[in-house]
Fold this sequence. Notes:
Layout: E1 3-7, H1 10-13, E2 26-29, E3 35-40, H2 51-59, E4 63-67, H3 76-79, H4 84-98, E5 104-110, H5 112-123, E6 128-134, E7 164-168, H6 177-189, H7 198-201, E8 205-207, H8 208-224, E9 232-237, H9 246-254, E10 260-265, H10 278-295
Parallel strand pairs: 3-4, 3-5, 5-6, 6-9, 9-10
Antiparallel strand pairs: 1-7, 2-4, 7-8
Amino acid sequence: MSVKFRIDFKRLRNPRADTIPSNEDKFFLKGSNGSTVILVHGVTGTPNEMKVLASQLNKDGYSVICPTLANHGQPLEVLKHTGWQEFYQSVRKAFLEIKDENNLIFASGLSIGALLALLLAEEFQDKVAGVSCLSPTLFYDGWNMPWYRCFLPLVYATSLRDAFYFKEEPPYGIKNEDMRQRVHKYYSSANLDDIEGMAQYGYPYFPVTLLYQLHLLVKYARSRLKNISAPLQLIQAKEDDMTSIKNSQFIYDRVSSKVKEMVLLDNSYHVITVVYERDKVVQKMLEFFGGIRRGLK
């Protein structure tokens, strides 16, 4: 992820926005096989990035719910003051709404969403039947990450924390050039207050305050890995531009799951839920979930 930085000094004079209620929108597809998959989109992303997966899982009989993470869909000035615990509560709330209505519940997430799915499995070990992590993100160490990435959290300790943003540059985690160009057209012209197009493409800017929250989330998730015993699947691209396969290996080596597997993709970047290999991702998820279901009969 190549990045451009922006400092908005107006945020120093008026750093907090008025509180706006969290966006409770989510999509739900009713299935027929008695099992549900909770799909968690990435931070600054959108449920739209999970819809193709959701549709194909649903065709195989699974109910699918994809909650909108806290304050996603709201102006960036609201999202930037959201804590990682609020993101997790969005996932937890969706789980609690369905936990007594289904025989089996699986969790899956993309990028940071994968960590939220893991935390759900750690908290509800007797209820989450399995977890599929898609491009899990613990370290921003992909081939397109800037060398100075490790210094970004330090900005939070300065007076610039409310005014400092970075803007993602190509390839945006997308290997397909046509799709990448559509994203680039929106991102290149968007300003800090622009949320038109966000529902489809996600937020073009990433606040440093939010980056710090993800730093805290990663630190907490790493400390809980040993407590996770649910069957675990990790799916990641060999050419992931944001997070190397070291991320999946790190999780694989530290969880207590007796059943675990790692799937590596040959023709994708970070966002593996779209374009070239999304069908393979769904196939592997169905095989993994199906094996768990058969084993419990």
